[in-house]
C-alpha cells in the first residue's frame, strides 16, 4: 500500500507547510536517508552504536513520537507508525554522541516534518542521528576535539 | 467530561495566556502610581517601610543609579553580623520563592483525576482544544498552554537576551533584579490555575499573587533596596514573530532592520529569528567582522543576512572540492576553506515556500578535504557510508 503525505497528516493529525506536495507518494526506504538535520542509518552500518541490555523500549503510538524539536520551539521531527509495529529506545551508546535513539519496526514507519514533509522507513532496525558542525583543525585519532555544535534546522 | 464542557476551559486558558503575553510585550509607558503602590505592598509584607522611587528609562539606565546608591541596593552576601535583618531584596526573594513553592506543592498534591492513556504524542504537539478532547486534565493543559508557552516567549526569548545585555553594562556588580512585565510567565501560571478554578488561594496568598501580578501588568524591571526602589520603564518597541511550529502561541523576538527591543533611551537588543546578535550583524555584516566573531550562532546569522553564496564570493573563499550530493539528485556539495574551519555548502532536500531550495553552509574541521567526507562527518559517518545516502528531504 502506498502512503501519501496527505494520508500521513490525516492519520496523525500532524501538519506540514502548505507548499509541500501532499498527493505525492512517500517512498519507503530500507537504506540511509536524511530528513534535514536528522539521518536514519540502518543499524548494520553503524555496529559501533550499541543498545544496552537494560534499555527501555517505548512503543511508537499511531499519533507519533516527537524525536527532536529545535531549541527555539519550532519544526519537530515526528516518528509515526501503526500501533504495535514500531518501538524506540534511548538506551544506547554512541561514540559519536549524535544518536537520538534506535528504532525497530516491523511495518513501514514514517518521519514527518513541517518543512521537509514525510519519509518512509522500511521494516528493520535503525539508528537516528542528528547533525553537527565543527571548526578547527583538531582531529586526533578518530575523536574530534574542536568546537562542535549540533545543527537544528 | 464531554467535549462540549471541555472547550470553554481551553479557550479560557488561551485567553489568559494571551492577556499575559500582551503584558509581557507591552510598550506602553509604565503606570507608575499603580506600580509603586504594589511595591509598597510587598515591602510591607516583608516588614520594610515604604521606599522612595527612582524611575529610569531602561535597565541600562538603572546601572549608574544603582551603583550610586551603594549598599542601599546590595542584596545578600554582605551580611557579616547574624543579628542583621537580611536586605529587603533577599526578603522579597524569599517571599516570592515561598509563594511559588507553596502553590506548586498544593497543585501537585491534588488527586490525579481521570487520565486517558491514549495520549502518546507530546502535549506540546496538540492544539489545546484537541488535548482536552483527548482527556488531558486542565491542570496539564494550563502547564503547556499557559506556563510553558509564556516561559518560552517571555523568559527565554525576551528577558534572556535583555539580561545578557544588561549584565554587560552591569559588570561585576550583583543586584537582585525583578523583571516586572517579563515575570508575567510565572504569575500567569498561578493566575490561570486560580481563574480556571483549579486552585483556591488563601487570602494572604491571593493578596501576594495580586501584588506580583500588578507589577507584571504595570511596568518594567525593578531593583528593591533599603528605603529606595529603582524601576525601569517598559521598552518603547518590541518586535516579534510567531515561533515556527508553536501550537501554543509562542513568540520569539525578531527584527532585521533595527533593534528588536528598544527602550526610550535607545538601549536595547538586536535579535534575528530568536538569535541574540550584536548590532553589526544587522547594520553592517562585513566579512572581517564575521571572521572575528567567536560565536558560531552569531557568525551564522551574519552570514545568512548576506547569503551563503554572497558571503563565499565576498570573502573570496577557495573551493576545496565539489561533488554530487548523494540522495539529493541534481544538487552539489561544495567545500570551501574559511578561516579556522571549512564550510560545506549544501542544498536543502525540500523546497521552500517560494519554490526555491535553500542553500546552507555547515562548518566542518579543517582537515577534511572531500565534500562527501565532510557531509558524512556532520552525521558522524565516513564519506564511504554517506555516499550510500538514498534520499534526502
What is the molecular shape of chain A?
Answer: globular
Count of helical segments of chain B?
A: 14
| Helix fraction bin of chain B | 40-55%
Percent range for β-strand residues of chain A = 35-45%
Largest beta-sheet characterization of chain A: 6 strands, antiparallel
Write down how many β-strands of chain A occur, each being a DSSP E stretch of 2 or more residues.
17
Write the element-wise H/E pattern of chain A from the N-terminal end onward. HEEEEEEEEEEEEEEEEE
* Mean of all residue-level pLDDT scores of chain B: 88
Strand share of the residues of chain B?
A: 15-25%
* Cα end-to-end separation of chain A: 31 Å
The count of strands of chain B amounts to 14
Spatial order of the strands forming the largest sheet of chain A: 2-3-13-10-8-5
Number of helices of chain A: 1
Question: Would you spell out the secondary-structure blueprint of this structure?
Answer:
The complex is a heterodimer of chains A (153) and B (393).
Chain A: H1 5-12, E1 28-29, E2 33-35, E3 38-42, E4 50-51, E5 58-59, E6 65-68, E7 77-80, E8 86-89, E9 92-93, E10 99-105, E11 109-113, E12 117-121, E13 124-130, E14 132-134, E15 139-140, E16 143-144, E17 148-150
Parallel strand pairs in A: 1-12
Antiparallel strand pairs in A: 2-3, 3-13, 4-9, 5-8, 6-7, 7-11, 8-10, 10-13, 11-12, 14-17, 15-16
Chain B: H1 3-24, H2 32-45, E1 52-56, H3 59-69, H4 88-108, H5 128-133, H6 138-170, H7 184-195, H8 203-218, E2 222-224, E3 228-232, E4 237-238, E5 240-242, E6 251-253, E7 261-262, E8 268-272, E9 275-277, H9 279-283, H10 287-292, H11 296-306, H12 308-314, E10 319-324, E11 332-338, E12 341-351, E13 357-364, H13 371-378, H14 383-386, E14 391-392
Parallel strand pairs in B: 1-3
Antiparallel strand pairs in B: 2-3, 4-7, 5-6, 7-8, 8-9, 10-11, 11-12, 12-13
Helix pairs in contact in B: 1-6, 1-7, 2-8, 6-7, 7-8
Amino acid at each position: 500500500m502506498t502512503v501519501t503525505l496527505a494520508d500521513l497528516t490525516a492519520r496523525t493529525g500532524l501538519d506540514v507547510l502548505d507548499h509541500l506536495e501532499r498527493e505525492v507518494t512517500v517512498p519507503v526506504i530500507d537504506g540511509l536517508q536524511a530528513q534535514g538535520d536528522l539521518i536514519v542509518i540502518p543499524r548494520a552500518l553503524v555496529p559501533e552504536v550499541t543498545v544496552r541490555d537494560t534499555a527501555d523500549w517505548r512503543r511508537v503510538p499511531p499519533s507519533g513520537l516527537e524525536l527532536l524539536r529545535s531549541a527555539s520551539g519550532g519544526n519537530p521531527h515526528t516518528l509515526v507508525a501503526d500501533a504495535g509495529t514500531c518501538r524506540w529506545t534511548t538506551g544506547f551508546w554512541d561514540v559519536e554522541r549524535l544518536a537520538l535513539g534506535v528504532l525497530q519496526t516491523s511495518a513501514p514507519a514514517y518521519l514527518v516534518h513541517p518543512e521537509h514533509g514525510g519519509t518512509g522507513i522500511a521494516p528493520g532496525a535503525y539508528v537516528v542521528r542528528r547533525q553537527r558542525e565543527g571548526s578547527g583543525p583538531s582531529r586526533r585519532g578518530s575523536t574530534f576535539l574542536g568546537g562542535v555544535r549540533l545543527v537544528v534546522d | 467530561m464531554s467535549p462540549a464542557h471541555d472547550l470553554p476551559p481551553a479557550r479560557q486558558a488561551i485567553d489568559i495566556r494571551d492577556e499575559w503575553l500582551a503584558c509581557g510585550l507591552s510598550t506602553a509607558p509604565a503606570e507608575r502610581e499603580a506600580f509603586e503602590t504594589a511595591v509598597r505592598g510587598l515591602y510591607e509584607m516583608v516588614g520594610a517601610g515604604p521606599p522612595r522611587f527612582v524611575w529610569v528609562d531602561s535597565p541600562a539606565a538603572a546601572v549608574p543609579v544603582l551603583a550610586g546608591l551603594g549598599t542601599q541596593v546590595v542584596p545578600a552576601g554582605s551580611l557579616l553580623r547574624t543579628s542583621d535583618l537580611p536586605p529587603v531584596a533577599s526578603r522579597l526573594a524569599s517571599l516570592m520563592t515561598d509563594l511559588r513553592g507553596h502553590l506548586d506543592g498544593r497543585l501537585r498534591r491534588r488527586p490525579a483525576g481521570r487520565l486517558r492513556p491514549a495520549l502518546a504524542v507530546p502535549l506540546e504537539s496538540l492544539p489545546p482544544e484537541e488535548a482536552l478532547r483527548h482527556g488531558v486534565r486542565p491542570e496539564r493543559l494550563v502547564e503547556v498552554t499557559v506556563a510553558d508557552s509564556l516561559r518560552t516567549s517571555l523568559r527565554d526569548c525576551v528577558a534572556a537576551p535583555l539580561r545578557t545585555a544588561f549584565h554587560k553594562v552591569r559588570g561585576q556588580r550583583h543586584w537582585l533584579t525583578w523583571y516586572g512585565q517579563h515575570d508575567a510567565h510565572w504569575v500567569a501560571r498561578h493566575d490561570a490555575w486560580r481563574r480556571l478554578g483549579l486552585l483556591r488561594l488563601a487570602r494572604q496568598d491571593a493578596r501576594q499573587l495580586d501584588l506580583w501580578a500588578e507589577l507584571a501588568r504595570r511596568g518594567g524591571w525593578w531593583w528593591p533596596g533599603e528605603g529606595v526602589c529603582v524601576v525601569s520603564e517598559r521598552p518603547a518597541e518590541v518586535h516579534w514573530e510567531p515561533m515556527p511550529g508553536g501550537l501554543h502561541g509562542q513568540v520569539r523576538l525578531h527584527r532585521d532592520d533595527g533593534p528588536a527591543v528598544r527602550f526610550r533611551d535607545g538601549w536595547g537588543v538586536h535579535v534575528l529569528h530568536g538569535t541574540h546578535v550584536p548590532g553589526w550583524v544587522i547594520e553592517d555584516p562585513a566579512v572581517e567582522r564575521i571572521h572575528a566573531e567567536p560565536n558560531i550562532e552569531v557568525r551564522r546569522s551574519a552570514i545568512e543576512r548576506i547569503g551563503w553564496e554572497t558571503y563565499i564570493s565576498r570573502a573570496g573563499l577557495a573551493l576545496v572540492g565539489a561533488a554530487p550530493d548523494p540522495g539529493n539528485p541534481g544538487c552539489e556539495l561544495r567545500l570551501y576553506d574559511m578561516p579556522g574551519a571549512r564550510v560545506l555548502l549544501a542544498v536543502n532536500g525540500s523546497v521552500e515556500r517560494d519554490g526555491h531550495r535553500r542553500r546552507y553552509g555547515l562548518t566542518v574541521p579543517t582537515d577534511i578535504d572531500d565534500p562527501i567526507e565532510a557531509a558524512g562527518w556532520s552525521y558522524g559517518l565516513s564519506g564511504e557510508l554517506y555516499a550510500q545516502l538514498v534520499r534526502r528531504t
